[in-house]
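subagent[fold] <- orchestrator: predict structure for attached chain, return tokens only, no commentary.
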Amino acid sequence: MDLFNPLSDAQFNVQSVAYTATAGTTTGWVSGPQGVLIWSDQPCYVIVGNGVTATATNGTPIPAYTPIAFKVNTNGGLWQVSAIQISTGGTLFCKPINIQ
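subagent[fold] -> orchestrator:
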């Protein structure tokens, strides 16, 4: 069973972003974390990576109020999480993590 280790360093803070039929994207984090814990108050499509913008065709659907861990695969530099609504706008919350 994997355990999550939330990163407490100030550069790996929790970020949130509102989304609607237009994607919302976090300001991002520098490379380092192994993953990111993502949850939302509405079902949405999400994508994680460098310079990403979520769409219904490239995003992974996630249910509301269900934290899900995504592996961070980036080319170094700033990486972000982006979300777009499935049917209703909402707010996405993201916390970088390491896996133990």
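orchestrator: received. Logging for downstream: The chain has one domain: 4-99. The beta strands are 4-6, 15-19, 24-25, 35-40, 44-49, 60-62, 68-71, 80-85, 90-99.
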